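Supplementary Methods S3. Complex input for the S-adenosylmethionine-bound model.
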Amino acid sequence: MIFSTDLYTFLEKSDCRSFIPIVEGKKDIIRNHGDYKIWQSLLQQLPDVKPSLVNFNQDKVQIGLKEDISANKATQLRELLLQLQPWRKGPFDLFGIRIDAEWRSDLKWKRLVPHLDSLEGRKVLDVGCGNGYYGWRMLGGKAAFVIGIEPYLLNVIQFQAVKKYIPDTPFYIVPVGAEELPGKLEFFDAVFSMGVIYHRRSAFDHLSELFSFLNSGGQLVLETLIIKGKKGEVFCPDGRYAKMRNVWFIPSPGTLELWLQKAGFRNIRCVDITRIKTNEQRQTEWMTWESLSDFLDPADTTKTVEGWPAPVRAVFIADKP
Ligand SMILES: C[S@@+](CC[C@H](N)C(=O)[O-])C[C@H]1O[C@@H](n2cnc3c(N)ncnc32)[C@H](O)[C@@H]1O
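Predicted complex, serialized as structure tokens:
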């Protein structure tokens, strides 16, 4: 399903045909993934149901009502969706089945959406889009279409499970990393990179990629972990950060502004700074592994278990001239 003709037709129609050979080039790697066959089989077992309603403009991404599905099919669907754990981003509501993901992603969306230019009629790219929660919200904002890029395959599979019930919506995920897209695209009106930059070894390469994906006049939304500190200060964790092995650099707000400026962005503004609490990131039935409360020092929750400052996140918006 990752390589459906639908995806290729959509990419052709949306003037993104240059993505097709990149996806094709990844076919073998993806098909050889140890879990690929299991995931495909789970997707194929999803029951057929027609949703009578779709709503992307509320906290939960809602597809269908409880009344649309028989009790047997609802049990079957729930069990299959649970097998696609861990669900990190949500919430979703599929035919009355609430997928209460680890992250209340709606809270971040609420913090940033008042600051965005209207997405109406815009071509949107969501870099590191996870399972697509935000892409659906962007469609709720009337984006012309959304393309997500996401290298972690289970996220793409979760997206496919949701998309099965609304196949004609103009949102697709392409299973690649930002660095694999063609350079100099200059195509999208809005580009989101949320929770990605600190996972990249080179922040400047990431910002250059984001700049090159945007049309002139386009808007970047960059969301990241930050530290308290002066312009120029950056935290490079010695070892893990909140048990994550892949956090390379966490800038201060002033430093990030400087990085964005150096990458060519203008009209840079920090629109939100929030300390993440355990009502936003927590263990649920849909993500039964460790979560934020396990990453913080129980004696002092302003620190991570490693003794670093606890996670604080910021949203920056900037324009491409
Ligand atoms: C912390 S999650 C954030 C997900 C979502 N954007 C959000 O804000 O909730 C980071 C995501 O970036 C993806 N990612 C990691 N490296 C990437 C890369 N080089 N290009 C695009 N996405 C990447 C990960 O697979 C993961 O889904």
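The two ends are 38 Å apart (CA to CA). DSSP finds eleven helices and 17 strands in the chain.
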